[in-house]
Amino acid sequence: MPIDATNPVPPNLPRLAGIGNVPDHVPQDLVRTLGIVYSPEFLKNPHEYMKSFHETQPRIVFDTGPMSNQWTLFKHEDAQFMLRNPDIFSNEGATPFPRDPDDYFYFIPIEIDPPHHRKYRKILEQSFSIPGVKTLEDQIRLRANDLIDSIIEKGECEFTTAFGRPLPVSIFLDIMGLPQDKLDTFVEWAVQLLHSNSVEPMQDAMAKISAYLKEMIDEKRANPDDAVISRIVHAVIDGQPLHEKEIFGFVVFLFIGGLDTVFATLNNIWAYLAQHPEKVKEMQDDPENIDSQLEELLRVWAVTFSGRVLAKDYEMHGVKMKKGDRITAILPTCNFDPDVWERPHDVDFKRARKPILTFAGGVHMCMGAHLARLETKIALQEWIRRIPDFRMKLGTQLEYRPGGVIGPEYLPLQWKW
Q1: Facing residues of 229 across strands?
Q2: Alpha carbon distance 89, 82 (integer Å)
Q3: Which of 202, 211, 253, 404 has minimal CB crowding within 10 Å?
Q4: pLDDT in tens, 201-257
Q5: Phi and psi based region of residue 161 (left: phi greater than 0; alpha: psi -120 to 50; beta: remaining)
Q6: Share of the chain above pLDDT 90, in %
Q7: Among 273, 267, 271, 261, which residue's Cα sits nearest to residue 349?
Q8: Cα separation of 191 and 409, whole Å?
Q9: Which of 330, 268, 329, 275 is closest to 301 using CA atoms?
Q10: In angstroms, how far is CA 415 from the centroid of its own chain?
């Protein structure tokens, strides 16, 4: 039965966690504690660790952890099947973020399954379509060059704060209609929500985000503009304005989703390029191949996961799953599937294009995928044009925060020796 976003009710889906809470129907030989997002093995080198699952794990395991237990998928084919079959793998209750049960709301449109999710995505279809984001190209290119102007003569920078964060986040704030002077505060809230490995700091961050966005929604209602929050506030579906709960759930979801993912992607890509100058040279020498170069870098440096809840009992590759079980596709691992890509660990800018899962897929494919591609493409073009010879500072040891968006916490670069 479709959920009613105007009258949200917390789903009756307990979030089991820990090795002591494995359901009886789960075969013991499939139970693991992989430590994805929090273990020392993961945090030492996340992508290397996730690559290894194709050699060390069966295609489906039941992973236990301190926050949640779930079936876990590593194969590209299996992830695509999960993403493309919402009648089996539902999004209701699948997001991990805590909410007040007495003031509950759905994250829209991610927690709304077909057919109703489409009416929400349609509200912002123009904004996030390829033609829509194309109108931002000059603005993104100007912003990228302004940031480079501020650091180029110094010969060094801490990339995450000098470029990786301010470029995509400032563009996102413009799109949303949010103030630039609160950029650091917004990122702080997002980091607390996305990179905490316990419920209490996540609840605190969600409370701060909720209180602020409720004020902004009221502001946009009184003073409409052309930005995304205002479009949601004043949207009409089937002749009816959106309910307060729909507006709030939509705005909160976009806010959370837009602050950390492209930021993490840029940090990963620049860390790789800083250690592989031959790849930078290849990009310099073949600028017409930028789209293939971009797609390959996005394949190798995926930063998120995709979770669902079983809407019915289902058997996959002989593994019997039960209604209410949680299931997660490890999208970075899926992008290294040797059954899809030859020599998947290599960065090969000449690859034939195949569907990557960096932005998930199916009906809930990331709304901001076109924007993320354009921002990353322009960032690469302008940086390599102006600072082609750069390295990580000598002695740098990359460190990663626990959490559901993967990227180095700091990245000190230099280009003058």
Answers
A1: none
A2: 6
A3: 211
A4: 888 998 999 999 999 999 999 999 999 999 999 999 989 999 999 999 999 999 988
A5: alpha
A6: 84
A7: 273
A8: 10
A9: 268
A10: 30
Q: How far apart are CA 96 and CA 253, in angstroms?
A: 12
pTM here is 0.95
Asked if residue 73 lies in contact with residue 327, where contact means CB atoms within 8 angstroms, the answer is yes
Burial 274-283, CB ≥16 within 10 A → b, else e: beeeebbeeb
Query: Measured between alpha carbons, how far is 72 from 36 in angstroms, rounded to an integer?
Result: 10
Distance separating alpha carbons of residues 265 and 42, to the nearest angstrom: 17
Residue 63 DSSP class: E
B/e letters for 72-104, b = 16+ CB within 10 Å, e = fewer, are: bbbbbebbbbbbeebebbbbbbbbbbbbeeeee
DSSP string, 71-106: EEE--HHHHHHHHH-TTTEE-TT-------GGG---
CA–CA separation, 131 and 135 (whole Å) = 7
Tokens of 310: 């079983």
d(CA 265, CA 358): 10
Residue 36, both tokens: 């994805």
Q: Does 1 score more than 60 pLDDT? A: no
pLDDT of residue 11: 83
For tokens 């069966």, name the residue.
Answer: 58
What is the rounded distance in angstroms from the CA atom of residue 259 to the CA atom of residue 391?
A: 26
pLDDT tens digits, 316-360? 999 999 999 999 999 999 999 999 999 999 999 999 999 999 999
pLDDT of res. 13: 81
pLDDT of residue 2: 63
Q: What pLDDT is attached to residue 157? A: 98
Instruction: Quickly tell me which residue has 């002695």 as its tokens.
Output: 395
User: What backbone phi and psi angles, to 5 degrees, belong to 146?
Assistant: -60, -40
Cβ neighbours, 10 Å, residue 329? 27
